[in-house]
Amino acid sequence: MPRRDVPGMIRTITRRGMIGTTVASTLAIPAFAQTAAPAPAAGDAGATSAVIDVNRARTAPIPIAIPAFAGGTSAGDMVGVIANDLNRCGLFRIVDGSGIAATASGGAPDFGSWKGTGAQALVTGSITQQGDQLRVEFRLWDILPGTQLQGTAYTTSSANWRRIAHIIADVIYQRLLGEKGYFDTRIAYISTTGPRNNPTKRLAIMDQDAANNRFLTDGSWTAIGPRFSPTRDQIAFISYVNRSVRVYLFDLGSGSRSLVGNFHTMTFAPRFSPDGGSIVMSLYQNGGSNIVTCSLNGGNVRQLTNSGAIDSSPCYSPDGSQIVFESDRGGDQQLYVMGADGGGAKRISFGSGRYGDPIWSPRGDLIAFTRLGSTFGVGVMAPDGSGERILSESFDVEAPTFCPNGRVIMFQRGDGTSSRLVTIDITGFNEQGVNTATSASDPAWSPVLS
């Protein structure tokens, strides 16, 4: 297997060419108004029957009932979106409450009836639509002590009904698990259509549950390796334009594309700094590639590595103090961690095979990677290289990206002719497919939007 091929530094160690990708994005979605609703009954913060600490150990999913909201909207099934979010994450189990009234007389649930379903938590709500405006109220109840944990109302345009559903799912997740949810997020990815010998690769974006898909580029030029900005308003990606590989920015507000500097050579594997103010990427130089940082317009260039090897796929730690990257400086493709100024590079991967596509968890405690051994594997290890474990292994799995709270990884799973996106818990459980309309690869998870 060649170490270098055309074009330039695009590696061939993986089946798609393990360039190392990077991303960040934003939504161009109308804002909505959120107001705290008066809680009809004060929640009992001490009630713990449905509240679980997921940091202690893997536990059984929380049984939760979400009966249909009173009223409704012609826009779509809001309760269905909430239930789907919670069910797919693997930490909740939706309980069938058919035949039980959501609330009894007086507005409070009949907790005795709901206890009989086995549910520990209950979500009730109502939707009022006036013209183009929706008012959505929901309440989260802890069934065993019979207390309210949350009561909130949202007002928005009807076009935002799905976002409100995701936001409610995030609130439920946080109240019951004690950490922020990740459902009000987007995924940037590469959509592939057409014949294998001449595919069309377009930059695309969708909700994390694959709804609201739209294409950001028309396929005139091949796009790969998207990465979302922490500010959520831009996506960095690689494009082949006039046979030149360059890093570009896509502005989600204006729909415009701009070249990141004019380096007169190939640039690739971009990723934003934690504050979104600069980009770290690889720059082709003298038969190898070095890692550089620059401002979003390509100015203020700083070269961080000069090993004479292929240094690629840089990714900042969440606090910006370190960078993980892949390099063949030791004779084989492995992972290294260095200071943000380029000093003190230290190898961290020592397992069997080659390593690439490193990405630092938003929690800072793990680095996800692709490993090529006898098969492909997506795994995680601590930033010092300890505790390596493979989460999924197959003919072709690669390109991991973390959800904003670091609990779930999305990656691509290929079969040799096409690929699809899947998610998996960092414990290696609950692999779920993401239903995209076309072959999909190179996922990049956005920060939470709200």
Strand fraction equals 35-45%
Largest sheet: 7 strands, mixed
Mean pLDDT: 87
As a percent range, the share of helical residues equals under 10%
What coarse outline follows from CA principal-axis ratios? elongated
Distance between the termini: 46 Å
Low-confidence sequence ranges: 1-48
Radius of gyration: 23 Å
Q: What structural class results from the helix and strand content?
A: mainly beta
Strand tally is: 31
User: How many helical elements?
Assistant: 3
Walk me through what this model shows.
- This protein is mainly beta.
- The chain has 3 helices and 31 strands.
- Strands 1, 2, 3, 4, 5, 6 and 7 form a 7-stranded mixed β-sheet that branches.
- The radius of gyration is 23 Å and the shape is elongated.
- Mean pLDDT is 87; it is low at 1-48.
What is the topology?
Blueprint: E1 33-35, E2 62-65, E3 70-71, H1 78-88, E4 92-94, H2 111-115, E5 121-130, E6 133-142, E7 147-157, H3 161-177, E8 186-193, E9 200-207, E10 214-215, E11 222-228, E12 234-241, E13 244-251, E14 257-259, E15 267-272, E16 278-285, E17 288-295, E18 302-303, E19 311-316, E20 322-327, E21 334-339, E22 346-347, E23 354-360, E24 367-372, E25 376-381, E26 389-394, E27 396-402, E28 408-414, E29 419-425, E30 432-434, E31 439-445
Parallel strand pairs: 2-4, 2-5, 3-5
Antiparallel strand pairs: 1-7, 5-6, 6-7, 8-9, 8-31, 9-10, 11-12, 12-13, 13-14, 15-16, 16-17, 17-18, 19-20, 20-21, 21-22, 23-24, 24-25, 25-26, 27-28, 28-29, 29-30
Helix pairs in contact: 1-3
